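Postdoc handover notes: sequence design on the structure in folder B. Input tokens:
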């Protein structure tokens, strides 16, 4: 039987991951506090009023050091604490203390890439890579298939997923596309696979590129890992909830 194993959110897009023990999802919305903010670089056209594609933001595909950031958010205080092995811990309010963040992140950004310039929000939704408010769903069995191909253990944090499922067959999640998936109280419309980028090459512990994950995925005949779903029935989910294909 398939079950929900883990729930993760990423308060600032591409700048830290945070595991949570429950989440209350609403129809038509992203996971609460997931990609609530995004970091626009100096060449970005993001206006901070609407959703914008990922090319407008600082991200691990261009700056692998960002992958080693972990996060802890405090919604009541509207703060996020960022932790990185090469930087002092930083607790700040992304809506009002941007300068502290820019000073903190500057050493992690490659000199030949557009510098991080400002923090933006898309009111009413997280700044996910998809143009619709999505929740990403990954399977431990598929992660194990990639580990088997590469011949060593890999952190599943490379995939930056929201929901992790256990108890499925490798790549079974691709059969869910075009159907609905129920996780506890929540029902999601599974819409598309997630095509992966160079961010997966970076080790989430060190921020250094140490694996050619895209080439390993090529060996399976695609560069996809995980699927994107849209919430159509809201509710609260917790690890251990049953996962059912409707």
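Designed sequence:
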């Amino acid at each position: 039987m398939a079950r929900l194993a883990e729930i993760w959110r990423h308060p600032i897009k591409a700048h830290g991951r945070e595991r949570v023990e429950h989440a209350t999802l609403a129809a038509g919305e992203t996971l609460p506090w997931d990609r609530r903010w995004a970091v626009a670089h100096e060449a970005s056209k993001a206006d901070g009023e609407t959703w914008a594609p990922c090319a407008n933001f600082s991200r691990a595909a261009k700056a692998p050091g960002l992958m080693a950031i972990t996060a802890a958010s405090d919604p009541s205080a509207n703060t996020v604490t960022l932790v990185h092995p090469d930087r002092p811990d930083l607790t700040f309010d992304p809506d009002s203390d941007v300068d502290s963040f820019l000073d903190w992140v500057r050493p992690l950004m490659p000199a030949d890439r557009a510098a991080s310039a400002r923090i933006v929000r898309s009111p009413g939704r997280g700044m996910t890579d998809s143009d619709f408010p999505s929740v990403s769903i990954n399977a431990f069995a598929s992660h194990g298939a990639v580990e088997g191909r590469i011949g060593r253990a890999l952190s599943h944090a490379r995939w930056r997923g929201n929901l992790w499922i256990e108890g499925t067959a490798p790549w079974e999640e691709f059969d869910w596309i075009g159907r609905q998936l129920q996780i506890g109280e929540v029902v999601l419309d599974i819409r598309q696979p997630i095509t992966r980028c160079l961010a997966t090459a970076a080790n989430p512990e060190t921020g250094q590129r140490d694996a050619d994950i895209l080439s390993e995925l090529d060996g399976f005949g695609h560069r996809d890992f995980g699927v994107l779903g849209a919430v159509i029935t809201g509710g609260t989910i917790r690890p251990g909830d049953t996962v059912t294909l409707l």
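Context for whoever picks this up: The longest strand covers residues 186-195. Don't rerun without checking with the PI first.
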